[in-house]
Amino acid sequence: MSFIPEELSSPITDYVKYLFCQVQFIQNSCNYPARNNLDVREACAKHSANLTLVIGENTIMRVFVLNKNLQPLDPCRPARARILLSTGKAKVYRRYPFTIILVEEISNPVTHEHQLKIDPGAKTTGLAVVQRQRVVWGAELTHRGFQIRDNLTSRRQLRRSRRNRKTRYRKPRFLNRTRAKGWLAPSLVSRIENILTWVKKIIRFCPITGISQELVQFDTQKLQNPELSGIEYQQGTLHGYEIREYLLEKWNRKCTYCGAKDTRLEVEHIKPKSKGGSNRISNLTLACHSCNQAKYNQDIELFLAKKPDLSKRILSQAKRPLSDAASVNITRWKLYHDLKSITLPVEVGSGGLTKFNRCRQNLPKTHWLDAANVGKVETLIIEVNNPLLITAKGHGTRQLCRTNKYGFPIRYCSRIKFHKGFQTGDIIRAVVPKGKKIGTYVGRVATRKSGSFNISTKSGLVQGISHKYCQFIHRKDGYAYTN
Ligand SMILES: [Zn+2]
């Protein structure tokens, strides 16, 4: 089905290929939500036949709809929203997430059950709204946890050096600080707050009746019965996925024998099955393909004859069960308790279950599709093409001056946030009619007192755009958006 030979690869041919793939896509009505060329190509190669879902109008993300009294109604298709807007029956309420509000109130509206599903991650959290089996809305929320950590580290170091620079000696004081019970590091709190903000926001715009959250990596309950048949731990059943997740955690996601990382790992019997080794989890480990082949049905002592220390270490680690704490992520539990306080029913699932659901349906690994697969899932109809990409940007800084790398103040920092009616973080559209910068730019703005703004658009930063050309799209809310 390939139109262009693979060896011709320049940006232009890539783009042509991409277009061809898109055409193929529509012809084959592929169910793969593609995010970039690579995705499309990969998906086309894999799924040139027997595809189930339809791409086109149906796969564009739904629009949230509010009744006149701000009650959330069922999300509608963009085409319907366009008609409502053009006939004056609705108005735009909000750009991100796109929400419209009806001009006339509907009395006793009928709404359906919508489940909000969350897959919390350290860097990115996936969000999906699922109505029965239809995924009608998806988003990926990128956190700024690492940025917060780095900022606090830098502040701590600057203050420490400043404090010590010209002071008399003081005896160190320590153990004189307490932390509240349940204290979490600010970077972790930020992640939880980001998710809660979005959950509350979506509940305001969509008739959500329940929340699903991925709580643990693997379900220890499901590991209780370790007797499996041959195929189960290779692929297939849910049980196998829980075991895989467990082993990945236990053996640090690398080959036990050679330490290879980022490679395909296979489940390995430490004592070979042919020599009476059991399928118990204490006899299983992970090995890369070549190690697995090399070991074949040898005993571990023989295979690692030259590395007796390693062999001893593996055997002792194999016997030790993974503590419950290993599968538990504190932030996820905190999030779980916070979600429960929202008074919607909260369903929880494990990472193994999510992966099982996703792989069974042959869906690509993205955060928002992972989210859609959290909890009990039969089959999903993906009606979203591009998820909304949300990035947490914070609400600015409270620094009174900028410092150099030694902590000396070097620059004044204005306390005035608004310049010419705009503030940093607003999303604007700038239409420049003349000059070098002629064109239309949409994006997050960084304001200056002079009125010459910078706009970070999809294709990069555009500098020096006058405030005269700028128009609001979305007021600053601490997040940046692309879709
Ligand atoms: Zn290996």
Please characterize this protein's 3D structure:
By secondary structure, this protein is α+β, with helices and mostly antiparallel strands. Helix content is about 30%, strand content about 25%. It has helices at about 10-30, 35-45, 80-85, 145-165, 185-205, 240-250, 290-295, 300-305, 310-320, 325, 330-340, 350-360, 365-370, and strands at about 65, 70-75, 90-95, 100, 115-120, 125-130, 135-140, 210-215, 265-270, 285-290, 345-350, 380, 390, 400-405, 410, 420, 420-425, 425-430, 440-445, 450-455, 460-465, 470-475, 480. Strands 5, 6, 7, 8, 11, 12, 13 and 23 form an eight-stranded mixed β-sheet that branches. Strands 21-20-19-18-22 form a five-stranded antiparallel β-sheet, with no helix packed on it. Strands 2-1-4-3 form a four-stranded mixed β-sheet, with helices on both faces. A hairpin with a 6-residue loop joins strand 18 (about 425-430) and strand 19. Helix 1 crosses helix 2, helix 5 packs parallel to helix 11 (about 330-340) and helix 6 (about 240-250) crosses helix 12 (about 350-360). Residues about 1-60 and about 225-235 have low confidence and may be disordered. The structure holds zinc ion (ZN). The site of zinc ion has 8 residues, from strand 10 and helix 7.
